[in-house]
Amino acid sequence: QTQGSKGVGGPAVGPPPPPPPPPPALEKEKPAPSSTSMAKTKSPPTPSTKTSAKTASPPAQVTLQSEIPLNISFKGKLLGKTPAQISLPPGKSTLVLSNKSAGIRIRRNVDLRAGQSLSLNVQLEKGTLNVSAPTGAEIWVDGTLKGKAPMGDIELWEGDHQLLVKHGNDALSENFSLNPGGYMNYDVRQTSAPRY
User: Region 102-115: what's the mean pLDDT?
Assistant: First the structure.
């Protein structure tokens, strides 16, 4: 009877021990936020109060009266005929008042506040024009033939006018402004008139 052989070897070895845990990782310092990222977080600028103030400004109301009916124009746009009430923006404005048949074209300046009401009574005065021209020359003012030279003083309403003197094939055209109660003289006898 044979004796069973015993296994040869050292003592039984268990499972290997677990590896030691790694050292805790050092927390990296967070970089300070850059100026770019800070700029992105800024709140949007508030809208300017000046813009809202302008849009909220109410117009001014101007009432115009005159003895002679006058067309009222502002920046080339016809607004009505006197007597009338018109709306204008606040600030300085120039109104053109005209009556073609009467030969009237004047300007009136107004300085208005927002929401202001203004009453304007337009008073008109006349002035005098004298034209010295060669005998027989035609004298036209504002498109109307006034007569032939020699002729006396011509009474006109104050304001802007156009003078035209025709003599033969020669013609002289001139724009002028007459002050209230003013006197203006044109001597075209020695003037080199433009030819048309």
Answer: 93
